Amino acid sequence: MADVKLVHGDCLEKMRDIPDGSVDMVLTSPPYNIGKEYEQKKSLEIYLDWQKNCIFEAVRVVGEKGCICWQIGNYVDSGEIFPLDFFFYQIFKGFGLILRNRIVWTFGHGLHCKNRFSGRYETILWFTKTNDYTFNLDDVRVPSKYPMKKHYKGPKKGQLSGNPLGKNPSDVWEIPNVKHNHPEKTFHPCQFPQSLCNRMILASSNKGDTVFDPFMGSGTTGVACVNLNRNFIGIELDKDYFQIAEKRIMANLIDV
Length: 256
Hints:
By secondary structure, the chain is an alpha/beta fold. The protein has one domain (4-141, 167-255): Rossmann fold. It is built from six helices and ten strands. The longest helix has 18 residues, at 44-61.
């Protein structure tokens, strides 16, 4: 059974209580500074300075073989788009981390823009501390497009040419986002889909590892960890969201 620790409070303050190198994976989606109900919009410079401090703590608590997955979108000011992954990449590189993938998460629904094309993607920056890291490709393979395709010449002629477990899912993921009629929907306005969490957790951690989400929100990362036999630490500032996360995670913990 997974070991779960849920903390209500400011993530930057509470992260300082977590020992160095004590978690195996950070998987989170911080506020985008776009004025959602759970955040106060700041200048881009102030926002990035705050996030840099949070990232410093995230890097500190991750072990040498661990990884950080930071899922972000775009900051919008006066109709101008600022791709946050561009700014965040510079911060992570400044702390010496290695980018393994810039994963594009694309989805079919969202706000309809009037003066530009409607945004239908966000990104996940997957960083590791070293070159010795966990990557369980076989756990996240997807069905091959042509599963019965065979080698047509050479010593393997007539044998299946693809991996029988499926193919690498690539770095572009088409996963529905959690909108009003989604079965996972809570009243949190920007909720992670669990299938996205599942893929990252399966690929980048092992059973019994500890996954940490400093911006826990509605607790989807924690639910995924419980179901996949990972330990979980989550921090959430908003009391209502914390209670939702606690209820969801504990319900799944009991079911397991």
